Amino acid sequence: MSRADTEATTPCTTMSCTTEAERAALHHALDLAAAPGVPAGPNPRVGCVLLAPDGRILGEGRHRGAGTAHAEVDALRSATGPVRGATALVTLEPCDHHGRTGPCTQALRDAGIARVVVARRDPNPVAAGGLDTLREAGIDVAVSEDPQLTARAEELLRGWEHGLVHHRPLVTAKLALTLDGRAAAADGTSRWITGPAARAEVHDLRECCDAVLVGTGTARLDAPQLTARHEDGTLRARQPLRVVMGEGEAPALPTLPGAGEALRLRTRDPEAALEDLFDRGIRHVLVEGGPTLAAAFLTAGLVDELIVHLAPSLLGAGPAGIGDLGITTITDRLDLELRDLRPLPTPDGPTDLRLLLQPRTR
Amino acid sequence: MSRADTEATTPCTTMSCTTEAERAALHHALDLAAAPGVPAGPNPRVGCVLLAPDGRILGEGRHRGAGTAHAEVDALRSATGPVRGATALVTLEPCDHHGRTGPCTQALRDAGIARVVVARRDPNPVAAGGLDTLREAGIDVAVSEDPQLTARAEELLRGWEHGLVHHRPLVTAKLALTLDGRAAAADGTSRWITGPAARAEVHDLRECCDAVLVGTGTARLDAPQLTARHEDGTLRARQPLRVVMGEGEAPALPTLPGAGEALRLRTRDPEAALEDLFDRGIRHVLVEGGPTLAAAFLTAGLVDELIVHLAPSLLGAGPAGIGDLGITTITDRLDLELRDLRPLPTPDGPTDLRLLLQPRTR
Q1: CB contact under 8 A, B336 and A313
Q2: Exposed, middle or buried by CB within 10 Å (0-12, 13-18, 19+), for A290?
Q3: B72 an active-site residue?
Q4: pLDDT beyond 60 at A121
């Protein structure tokens, strides 16, 4: 077991606590990392803020993708005055290895940084160990234990971390269902099963994922744009890759200025599709449907989380929200673990439910 | 407008507060009214406790059905010593009319009762006005404002009160569904879609309703007992009338010692069935299924509340949990108001959800 492995699971008892100013600066660093200019994909999204002992911000930076400066170096370069004695707030533990750029630990030491506070340890064994190196160099180090900061950092990095461990993209599947499991009425109409709050979340999901995936059936029937839009219909700054997969015929996705690139994958095999997307740098995929595609990913055991928007309505007829799973008897049912449950109230309308679930047997 | 109507909606500002001993005695009176010996049906379930000024219980009573003594008179008769100056705690406002028995207000006055505390006003205009009569006779009166007592009294009396207003039984429908709206797997197996907590609630519902209703399809396929059972399988003390309705063929319900009477209604019309049951004294019906019967009641607008036990499982195929509602397009969907939502955790198993809903347009 390498030293990095040991450190990753052992609490650092020598670490100090963080101040309120540091936590505020870490939130700012997370904002920098989450901004649209920071590409998703195979590199972690990282932000960095340099704080003077009196609380002034001396510099800020972010990592803009493979081959560009890491966030720490970007922040050091942005500083217009001296940074000796400053504190660096970084969303991810500084790297300690020679990749396409030099180790950030060295850059921070060279600049005379006195203290480094991170929101998340680096789970990548190749790059980890940065905090130990810094501490051994006499720099004060801390990992924030603020639950809100931890959650934000985890959320921002989870596609990248999933890729490190599983060598395939993280898969979120989303379904909109009536209480009786219908995706549409008998005549095929489905707008809208769910209310505005549920539909807004779909655009949030599209914005935070690297790619949105639909089957050829959905491409044919719904002619979706697959863009992340604001409530007023305008495009958001970050847009996912738009993917239609399957062997059936399907129209090309509309070409829209500001929309993500469109991709056609001529396979109905979820594993093959994910392999292709992973090779393209995609780390988080949103499977939007329809029922056949969702069923294919569920059957293949390739759904990491399922978000169900459940409308408190009944249709009694119409297409099922989930296609055939190859299940014929009750004991073979696909059980899911309910991770989160909350109502999505609609003004003057029914309250949809949002369920976050994970397949139980994986 | 009669005096009774005015009183029912006007707050009684002259009323005094209740003591802790009185609230405890009211809970006891509710226990008496809810006990298996008190029949459900066309008469309200009422209990009464007589409390001495020093807190001793002097007597207790309950109403055992049409033609028998009211709870107040039953309590007065049960007292072995003098009750002059005592407080009467009654779950429902004492009646003020000459029915098959004399007015309870008179009986309480004659006995020298000094104070009367009730959990619920009488919504029946024929019998109401008891508190006013008592107050005019110089007896101190109070209505408990304790929310727990109010809720218990409402729960106990709601079938009876519904009958007064709507002249048909209150209808609770219950469905057990997977997340994709299935009532069973493709081979027809359905045991068990939901966990023990959901199944225990079904027995609670059977115990508190006057009648349990299934369609001929369910009677054929599931051969249900329709008894209210404890967890160990033994019968509970209170059992509902067991009803199979529909025009199809169905086997007779099993004859079981201790089970409720079995009834066969040869109609598929929910309104006709409810009229028949109301005439038999039934005030609260539990519609247990199957999908066709539930759909018939929903389509007829005759479901007052819908309880859905939603299992976080997927089947992808199998019979739908709700039959055809005659809905063909999305804008005609049947919207429900979500009144309550709670998880029903299963040890080492998936957590079912319990949804309490009411149809929106009634």
Answers
A1: yes
A2: buried
A3: yes
A4: yes
Contact A316 B322 (CB under 8 A): yes
**Please, what is the average pLDDT of chain A?**
91
Which range of residues forms the domain containing residue A294? Answer: 168-359
Burial class (CB in 10 A: 0-12, 13-18, 19+), A349: middle
Say whether B177 sits in a helix, a strand or coil: strand
Which residue numbers of B belong to the known binding site? Answer: 70, 95, 104, 176, 190, 192, 206, 218, 222, 226, 229, 288, 290-296
User: Buried b / exposed e across B106-136, counting CB within 10 Å, b at 16+?
Assistant: bbbeebebebbbbbbbbbbeebbbbbbbbee
Identify the weakest region by mean pLDDT among A40-44, A212-216, B76-80, B228-232: A40-44
For chain A, how many residues are written?
Answer: 362
pLDDT at A126 over 90: no
Residues B79 and B135 in one domain: yes
The residue in chain B having the minimum alpha-carbon distance to the alpha carbon of residue A341 is B343
B311 inside domain: yes
Given B7, B22, B60, B72, the catalytic residue? B72
The total number of residues shown for chain B amounts to 362
Å between B192 CA and nearest CA of chain A: 7
Task: Say whether both B187 and B76 belong to one domain.
Answer: no
- Nearest chain B residue (CA) to A332: B315
Report pLDDT for B138: 95
The answer to whether A262 touches A255, Cβ cutoff 8 Å, is yes
On the question of pLDDT at B125 being above 80, the answer is no
DSSP B2: -
pLDDT score, position B346: 81
